[in-house]
Amino acid sequence: MPKAELHLHIEGTLEPSLAFALAERNGVVLPFATEEELRAAYSFTDLQSFLDLYYALMAVLRTEDDFADLADAYLARARRQGVRHAEIFFDPQAHTARGVPVGTVVDGLTRALDAAPRRHGITTRLIMCFLRDEGPEAALATFESARPYLDRIAAVGLDSAEVGHPPAAFREVYRRAREAGLKCVAHAGEEGPPAYVWEALDVLGVDRVDHGVRSMEDPELVARLAADQVPLTVCPLSNLRLRVVDRLADHPLPAMLEAGLLVTVNSDDPAYFGGYVDDNFTAVRDALGLDAETLRTLARNSFRASFLDEETRARYLAEVDAHRD
Ligand SMILES: Nc1ncnc2[nH]cnc12
Ligand SMILES: [Zn+2]
Questions:
Q1: CATH no., domain 3-318
Q2: What is the mean pLDDT of residues 114-128?
Q3: ipTM greater than 0.95
Q4: Which residues line the pocket of ligand 1, CB cutoff 6 A?
């Protein structure tokens, strides 16, 4: 099924094999002797336990080539999963903190993204995320340091440790982003309460909410999201691995669809969570008993919720309608 992926951290596509290859290339010593040892650490109790490993492993990403190789490897895999369009997050602060300039990151990623239509048959957008646990001043400094690259960036986002870091503090950086013509998204309602989703909508003015699954605890919020058809980028295998849900069979995805929300299915950090986007489609189909029409709705939603121009969006939607299993 043709689909768009709208919630994908490029750093979360760093597979153990590439991590070890880049460690070797850059002379970085990892605190794991083998790929098996590293994989054994992929047992998470919550978001923070994942983030600790996610940031640690980024030590191997140092040069423009590293970022280009990382993105190209993701795009090759994504195409095999039916992805025709990808809107890709990156975390500049996770790299500048280690002395890697934002320009190195953007140049490497855009080298792979620019080649993607002809190399992989995938169109892309780039979304620059701020690390909410680093605070609003650091986000502002990051935004200003990225100004020379904004013509290659479609949107800003907000990620990292959610609880205790509500969206409202980031009002000014989102105002500047919108003023610069960028779209706005934010992680909210993953581990954080519905109040954070309200703030993302009303204070930051986001065009999409990333995750948003805890919105289901607040009927008024559900009504608002449905009325405005605010897209939610849901990541089922991520929610399972980070213990947002105990079992995939308990996932609120069917209730979200039932409530008329514009829901999409995505992979978040596929190298860590046991599956790329089509694996997420298959997992929810099997665990939640979703039928073929519902899966097609999810694929249609992914293009409807994208930042594509209308003409390209219509072309992809026609591909979904023409698709036969
Ligand atoms: N699921 C997630 N939530 C918040 N920040 C993240 N960074 C990478 N993956 C994330
Ligand atoms: Zn995410």
A1: 3.20.20.140
A2: 98
A3: yes
A4: 9, 12, 47, 54, 159-160, 187, 190, 238, 268-269
